[in-house]
Amino acid sequence: SLDETFRRARDQLRSFEGIAPADPPREFKGSLRGYQREGLGWLLFLESFGFGGCLADDMGLGKTVQVLALLESRRELRAQQPQDRPGPSLVVVPRSLVFNWMQEAARFTPQLRVLDHTGADRVRPGEHFDDYDLILTTYGTLRRDALHFKDVVFDYCILDESQAIKNAGTESSKATRLLRAHHRLALSGTPVENHLGELWSLFEFLNPGMLGTASVFRLGGAGARNPEPETRALLAKALRPFILRRTKEKVARDLPEKLEQTLFCELEAAQRKQYDELREHYRATLLDRVSREGINKAKIQILEALLRLRQAACHPGLIDKSRTNDASAKLDLLLPQIAEVVQEGHKVLVFSQFTSLLAIVRERLDQEGITYEYLDGKTRKRADKVERFQSDPDCKLFLISLKAGGLGLNLTAAEYVFLLDPWWNPAVEAQAIDRAHRIGQTRNVFAYRLIARDTVEEKVLELQKTKRDLADSIINADNSLIRNLGKEDLELLLS
User: Fold this and answer.
1) pTM recorded for the entire structure
2) Which of 171, 205, 255, 296 has the most CB atoms within 10 Å of its CB?
3) Residue 329 pLDDT > 90, yes or no?
4) CATH fit for domain 2-253, picks 3.40.50.10810, 2.30.29.30, 3.40.1280.10, 2.40.50.140
């Protein structure tokens, strides 16, 4: 009963000694940094009291890894006590992050059985869920399957990028509140954006009823958007145990100077169709010609094919100018990440080799009202632009065409670097990251490479591991490519 639960919590709190850092479970692969062990300790504290909480660390500090350590500890518990077996856990993520969760789980918690519950061929919620430890789904799938999901009792229910439910009235918010779970968590770099209504929506998911009803919480008007200092102080104090936020600055001593990560994105149906049609066209025309005449004769066509496929992996509008407003997997991943980092107060560099891709990014940023600087090979007054980015607190974003920005720019105000398309020449890539990470940079730098799955980009990553020279020459589109390229390499790139 509720009274019983309350009494138990009160007794536990009386003997509460504080939150201690926790070691990751035995089967967890890898180690946790000091602040991540503290994060795991906090997650276990919430679990023991039956509270929900929001892990709100800055982007790049490893929220996913801390949660995976927690879920691995639940899996080990299940293995030891099958009779008390809690059900599987559910993680709801934006579509662009599904594959990255799958990858991180495979890397850090290979024992966790993970189900990707997205796409048209997914099973009905509830069927076979018990065969898994972790179910991954998207906010869109959750909305569509809401009525089936509510019949399942999960161990943990975790919302990643939980700002997706900041508006209490949306279908996504309602669908998350229907979920049933023993424990609830939210992950967000920007959870409490100064609007009390958003806070209510988050806590109504985490600890239902804790902040009273929406109407009592005064959701309307200026008071919600800009609460009085006393209200804010009171709330901050009341909610302190349930929100854990560490900024990069706070945990800098635990971090390496440079952190690099590859983010994979999945092409949506329309972009995938365009890419596959292009690939099939080049397979049909090129492989046949190479068989007949040899690689040397097809040199120009091969270079063109690789360039067009790389463009199609980035955005449909680079192939067909009438499609610049279409969805693109990379922008769907990039834009929310940029918005989050900028909101956290950090500065960001975005590099691409394609000025046409940066033009589309600029259009989106203009629509969102985000201030940025831009630099490509044609830019005049480069020093002024660099100076503004380095010193103007309102200019948090710098878009740079790689060919222009690889050398000689000193952009140490930046803490985050996004490489929109891979450069197979690692030296050039390192140069771009080092724009931010140089002598004079006192902060840690996070660098992210965006790679489109099942495209030529991923194939070249494979080649990079085995045939460094070949990979370098593909990106430089120089004549050495034809010297280094064999027919089987071409088949791999077009597969």
Assistant:
1) 0.75
2) 205
3) yes
4) 3.40.50.10810
